Amino acid sequence: MTKAEKNTIENETVDILYGFKNQENRKNQFDWEFKTDGLKDILSEEDFALIEKQDSSYEKNLQLKEILQRYFSAEKGGDNAQNKKLADWIINDWGGIHSLKDFGKIINDIKNFYDKNQSGKDKIDDLRLSGSISSRSKVLSFLSPDEYVICDSRNIFALNWVLFFAQLDYDKIHLFRPLSGRNQTMPKYNLETVANLVFEREIEYTFTTYSNFCYLIKDLTKKLGFKKIYETEMLLFSISVDKECGIPHFVKEKIKETWEE
After folding, report:
1. Exposure check for the chain: N or C terminus, fewer CB within 10 A?
2. Structure pTM?
3. How confident is the model at residue 261 (pLDDT cuts 50, 70, 90)?
């Protein structure tokens, strides 16, 4: 893919995402609720109250991103009790993931982030899009929300569909390696089946690293006019399973248009 093609595809992607961004009440469709009880032992009373007083789930999560990063510590190279408590709260209380088998990988990511020689940052960039990236990226996104984005099955699902329709003029369509998820809406929309049977296009899962995902989200954020990369992250999350005006509805309409031509 040439640089010019990449830029064209990004612009097409932004045009599609603009349609979702500008939908009435789009921010209210971000429904990630979380229990704050566990934060009382982590945050100051002032910061805890600031999060609690937010009216919407969207604003509460924005405040959480701004606040929580300040509580991570570089002490002992990142491998300390404070960071373990933060990571545990993010994974279990905020993320709702109670079956994480290897918590050590999470702590190792934090240690890599604080690596003084910066070689650890390269290790984070090289993380593959596998099942563990969902939990690991959640912690990284709170550790450094200006650098790292949550990469889970819903965000990949939404972004891949937008990228698909942004590349319909190409014979081969380049997408991110999909992730398995717990949500029941996504499997009903098999991208490869739709691509082959309806649009007669070939799919190639070209993008396979966490850095591929973060870099693209950063580019899209600038072009969408968002101030923070997690605003783009939250937009993708909100449209992923919104049956009324999100990706499921969008895909249905695109298929209908093709059949009517």
Report:
1. C
2. 0.93
3. low
Q: At what angle do helices 229-240 and 247-260 cross, to 10 degrees?
A: 60
Phi/psi for 79 (5° steps) reads -90, 80
Residue 165: Cβ within 10 Å count: 16
The residue ranges of DSSP E strands in the chain, in sequence order, are 172-176, 202-207
Can you give the C-alpha Rg of the chain in angstroms? 19
By C-alpha distance, which of 193, 250, 252 is closest to 19? 250
Alpha-carbon distance values, 196 to 2, 173, 202 (Å):
24, 11, 7
Q: Give the model confidence (pLDDT) of 126-139 as tens digits.
A: 999 987 899 999 99
Give the integer Cα–Cα distance in Å for 107 and 76: 12
Burial 57-67 (b: 16+ CB within 10 A, else e): bbebbbbbbeb
* Helix (H), strand (E), coil (C) string for 231-248: HHHHHHHHHHCCCCCCHH
Contact 177, 207 (CB under 8 A): yes
Chain centroid to CA 233: 4
Residues 6+ away with beta carbon under 8 Å from 55: none
